[in-house]
Design a protein that fits this description.
The protein contains 16 helices and eleven strands. By secondary structure, the protein is an alpha/beta fold. The relative contact order is 0.13. InterPro entries: AB_hydrolase_fold, Epox_hydrolase-like, Epoxide_hydro_N, Epoxide_hydrolase. Keywords: Aromatic hydrocarbons catabolism, Hydrolase. This is Alpha/beta fold hydrolase. Belongs to the peptidase S33 family.
Length: about 400
Amino acid sequence: MADPIPFTVAVSPDVLADLDRRLHATRWPPGAQPRWDAGVDQGYLRALVERWRNGFDWTSQVNVLNRHPQYLAEIDGHVVHFLHVRGRGQKPFPLLLTHGWPSTCWEFLPLVEHLSAMTFDLVIPSLPGFAFSPPVPHAAAIPGIWHRLMTDVLGYPRYGAHGGDIGAMVTNRLALDHPDNVAGIHVTMPAEPTIDPATLTCEEHEFLAQRRMSHETDSAYAHAQRTRPDTLAAALNDSPAGLAAWIIDKWRDWSARDGDLATRFSMDDLLTTITLYWVTGTIGTSFAVYRDWALGSSGRPEAWANRDDISPGVDSKPLPPGQRITTPAAVALFDHPAPPAWARRAYADLRTCARMPRGGHFPALTEPALLAGDIRDFFSHGCQRAGWRRRVRLPGGLDLRGAVRGGGV
């Protein structure tokens, strides 16, 4: 296998000039109200577009990204873009970080200083079809490509993995598919278990009722991306203002439910992510995983029951009855509403399930120290089979501890 090729982010001035022209020519919808209850707040969106045209320093954001070593690797005929940041100290532990949607590898940059200082070798790839990684024919290939990146390309026979959103689904599949090589996983979204309704707790019943309601109130984006991705891509790939509206609607909904995006992200945070999608033209290819894995259809078997190509344990399709992930695992519940009992159904060796006090859906950006600390605690101490004392952290700082081994929490 060929050695990775060094990579530097560079965008043609013509692409940026075309972006400015399109922003200037934005045709705003008539009658739209400055509110969020019907979608994106038009007042905020107009201000964001104005910042994009006059004030946003794309060059400085590129320079931040290019400060970290980046590479392209060819694996099984697929090209993967990734950052590889070596840790400090002796024998740094290799840790794979996988982002979700609508995100990019840039989301993890605030974690780099925290985790590299904690003696982690960080490998941060762009998911296929996102930013600088070309798409693959089917999302089912991603865990295998990630495994070969870590073992064959980078030479790590054992490694840990963290992921959020789609990155959590990939991480869960890595643990299922490569238990001998994956030392432990840390995720912000638990794998989907098979349930016996007779055994559900009250909290789990409430969680499932909430999830059913969200299919009606909050999941239009997922249904469109799963069922009509090419139609949606044609619009968003042509209009930067439309692309911005589609992305910030989810960033606000998932992280700033008080209505004020400024309390969680600067405009430049948002614009960096949006611009990465725009200049690479990857919003459409980022939808592919929604179609491949029927994402957003949790509890809706009509979307996945007859599809063998969908990987069990992802957001939509549950693990087969009796199957659990055996790799040591930690779940950090930042914005995911599942109770700890739900997570215990999917993991045979759940070391930690923590309801995090803050952070939202993008904790690497909003609470990097908090997320890095939880990752460090798990891989430094919790990812050891012998003598580990499991814990469930509850709101208010309470801990439930037990000396059990090899079971639930």
